[in-house]
Amino acid sequence: MANGAVSLIRVFGIDIQLHWTFVLLLLISLYLGIVSNFNFFLFFFIVLLFAMVVIHELAHSITSIKSGFPVKKIILIPLGGASIIDLDSMKPETQFRIALAGPLMSIVLAMLFGTASVYMPAGFLSLMFQLLFLLNIILGVFNLLPAFPLDGGRVLKSYLERKRDSFSATKLAVKISNVILALFIIGTIFYYGLIPGISISYFSFVVLFDFVVVLFLYGGAQSELQAAYVEKYTSTLRVSDAISKNYITAKHSTKMRDLYELFLKKGTHIVIYRKNGKVFLVSKLIMNPSAKNAESMLDKSIEDFSTEIPAISKGEKLSRAISKMRFEEANIVAVVDGPKIAGILYGPHVESVVALHIPKNLGGRAAVKDKSN
After folding, report:
1. How far apart are CA 209 and CA 195, in angstroms?
2. Would you say the pTM of this structure is higher than 0.90?
3. Is the bond preceding 70 in cis, omega lying within 30 degrees of 0?
4. Is residue 34 a contact partner of residue 91, using CB atoms and an 8 Å limit?
5. What are the angstrom distances between the C-alpha of 271 and each of 245, 266, 294, 311, 364?
6. Are 189 and 205 contacting, i.e. CB atoms less than 8 angstroms apart?
7. 5, 86, 139, 151: most buried by Cβ count inside 10 Å?
8. What are the pLDDT digits (tens) for 323-344?
9. Does the structure show a pLDDT above 60 at 287?
10. How far apart are CA 152 and CA 236, in angstroms?
11. Secondary structure (H, E, C), 46-101
12. Cβ atoms of residues 148 and 221 within 8 Å
């Protein structure tokens, strides 16, 4: 499990993961089904929602791949899903197509299921198709709201970029997003407040649920704005401006036993090496080298305890490197200068460098955390 998510399946080469909160929701709904005389409607509903969200996100991902932009994975959470796509250097029209693909897929599915339910004889299948129609309508229409991080927010930003630079378009899109979210809460209160005979408990539950959704979306919008500020204020910085030399280089044949002598000499635990043009990090250390069960491991080479890390050219923009670190979920990136390792980018060090270039009233150090961790 990485970042609170567990891999479930791979579809078209895309890793689909369930966030622990989604797993918890499934378990709770299954438990409620058992204790309520084996009424598994809620569990069945969530499974169907899961399937429709997967199809929705796959539409984004496949469109992205066909446009030449890789997709890291799809993560499913209780409030929906997210396709992890490298958006750096993507043209506005491409972002527009990718963002619109998900809602359009949901609306097409809604039309298909709705049509099928009309011609289906009354019974279980008819009810299932009606439920699938409703789920896809909600997914399609809700995601078209012009609010970050919903698809509609990205559609709006890409549209605004036709006449504005990326930073100005993001700022305006986030302002519009905040207005939409405020209207969403106000509309919920007025709509349910005018329903005759509605109970206080039900009214409170609906408003509280919508408030949680709005907080989630507001947080996503602020992350987009912070990322825009990072890109703006680091536009003149290069990878070379944030290089760290706090690491050790070693040969891939180095024994783990010899590694600890290097630690004592260099005073760092970051060990990297290059092999066949790729850079690797020694990601697993033996916590107690003197233990008897560690003896055989100490005689193995560091290759057995390493993972490949991303690499970026020394002359690239720092904003590009930050985007790469976020996309690859890497806290350490190798900096290469031709065939040589020029240094590393280390998350906390990059944060410090960027913080020096972002005005304190705009978040300072906090503004880069979402990008580098």
Report:
1. 18
2. no
3. no
4. no
5. 11, 10, 19, 15, 30
6. no
7. 151
8. 888 877 788 888 888 888 888 8
9. no
10. 31
11. HHHHHHHHHHHHHHHHHHHHHCCCCEEEEEEECCEEEEEECCCCCCHHHHHHHHHH
12. yes
Token pair for 301 = 């080479």
Give percent above pLDDT 70 in the chain.
87
* Residue that is written with structure tokens 């693909």 in the block: 101
| Contact in structure between 99 and 146 (CB atoms under 8 Å) | no
The string of pLDDT tens digits covering residues 20-50 is: 777 777 788 777 777 777 667 777 778 888 8
> Among candidates 59, 69, 57, which has minimal Cα distance to 94?
69
**pLDDT per residue as tens digits for the range 226-249:** 888 888 888 888 888 888 888 888
90: tokens are 């993507």
